[in-house]
Predict the structure.
Amino acid sequence: METDISVEALTMTNEDRWYLSKIQDAQLEDTDIRPILKMKLNSADRPSLQEITCESPATKRYFALWNSLYLKDTVLYRKWEN
């Protein structure tokens, strides 16, 4: 049985890098996202619950989603699975 596989290579332009930089800047300015982004940038390990007790309810919600959040090019994304 033969299977055709199509592969596309995506390249990143300087404009794309600029755009990603603006997204990261916006995430760092967001008081709810910033703590999670900084934790992800510093370590792949999930911090303890005690480390986020003083954070906002929204930050705590992001913390609950820790395993579905990931970094790509220093921008925080959420994995969506069906």
